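As described in the Methods, two query proteins were run sequentially through the folding procedure within a single session, without resetting any intermediate state between them. The first query and its resulting structure tokens are shown here.
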Amino acid sequence: GGSASDVFNDVGTAANGDRYVTGYTTSGVFPPVNSQNFYNGSTDCVILKYTADDTLRYATFQGGSQQDIGNTIAINSLNEVFVGGQTFSTDMFGKNVAGATNQFTNGGATSAFKADGFIAKMVSVTGPSDNTLFWRRYFGGSGSESILSIFIDPSNNFYISGYSSSFDCPVIAPFKSTLSSTTAANPSNTDAIFGKFNPALTAQWITYYGGSATTNTGVAQTDWGQDIVVDNSGNVIGCGLTDATDLATTNTTGNTNTFFDNSYAVGNGTDGFFVRYNSNGTAVDFSSYFGGTNTD
């Protein structure tokens, strides 16, 4: 760390034992090692790599002139590194790849209080830095977004979860196609987002998930997709938090022994939720609240 705030939010491990870390720094003197970029001011995303023998191979900045935060990191079987997070910068430029689902500009940049998510891919190279930026895109619309989790399956498809307050979030083949906000003029409510990309970086599906009604007075309604995984059958399982009283819960699994709760525990907090999509994102066979009358 440097002389100001330095925070690590996630760590991932490659099959060969190398470890990767992401987070952020507000320190202009954060100690870079084989860095590919300079500190650009405010808050920069940082990415670090330690080899299996605990050697620090690099500590590099990724960011523009505003606040950029690395929330999640994952490594595929090719030792390619994926980082997701949130950026307020208009100059954390995308790096487009032919055939990928690209987004070069920050859709939320018209307001100082709105941000986009971002997704970046780093590939292996020969040299002291080990990895170089291959692809980076903004993710979002005219509201605010953040990428909170990335998961990679054995076929190197990768999956994202997070949240959006944008009516124009770039959903693709969505199971739920519209934001559950109350009015277009005040899109302060957030929906969870879940999505799948193939190894060629092409989005297969991206969907909203959430409700619109809440008993918590004086606050925006909130649904966040905190994490995402894939089971052995290829089903995509997301989880997060909600204070919506009208989530579209369902249980068509045929399993009567599983825990299932179709009602929000009314109180002054949030419930957890689980949702399970098929691999194509076209069907949900399980969606449930989980929680009590306080915050879960």
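Immediately afterward, the second query was submitted; its sequence and tokens are:
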Amino acid sequence: LSVNYDLLKVEDSAQVELRKNESLFTIHGKPFTLGTFREEFKELSPETQAKFANYEAKKILIDQFIAKELLLEEAGDDTADKEEPKEVEAAKIRYLSQMLHKEEIDEKIGQVSDEEAQKFYEEKKNVLVEPAKVQISLIGVAQGPSDAEKSRARQRIDEARQKLAEGMDFAVIAREYSTDSTASAGGELKSWIYDSEHYDPVLRENIFKLQPDAISNVFEYKGEFLIVKLRQKEDKRQRTFDEVKDWIKKTLLDERHREKEEKLEEELLKKAQLVIYDSSLKPMLKEEPKTKL
């Protein structure tokens, strides 16, 4: 199966007219000419034309058309198929790969109702929780590689802690003593920190035991001496259905999509009776991990 892709580069109207009867490819003795392609391309929507405007995109469009013809045509002269089976199978594979991700799959699986989402919520309620979370400010002093530098760093952080104990403002002390990147912001971390059994045990022990406005003692963590102030804390809570409804619907829809893809894959492979060559269909179909709920 030979395809004259170079014809797709012809854009000049005079050249198109001159070469319109030249074949891009031939399937079962039927030629598909440049002129035919140009006419059919004009019938596409403006959005689709824009999508396949450049040369590489037009090659993909031709590949899809060829593979569709080879895959769906059940009668006729299949001499070309027998002459170059690997090229034919590769063309079919490109089409199948596209088919498995077409929007029609989404149309077939429909939408997830509120009732279905509510049922999922009740079944998975025990895991649909927001863990305890905190916002902190910190003072960090790098220890340095030598014992002398570590000693000076310890002296510096102890001095900072003493001033905090005397009631001085945490942000002021952070700007004066901290060598951490947060120093210019008064030691303030903007993002929330969520509690988890996988969170570093040193930080977990020294942060989550604090109450709002409390200040930790000095502790060591990854080459720094740290002091932490807990600015805000929220306890673990159950997420409401309204909070997670959209996420549940997307999760269920994605699962249905995966199941539909797997079913379509089986149907198409059975119908096409494809010979699976190495580095062909299976790697393409399995390139993304599929996880179940």
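The CA atoms of residues 82 and 88 lie 9 Å apart. We note this only descriptively and draw no conclusion about the first query from it.
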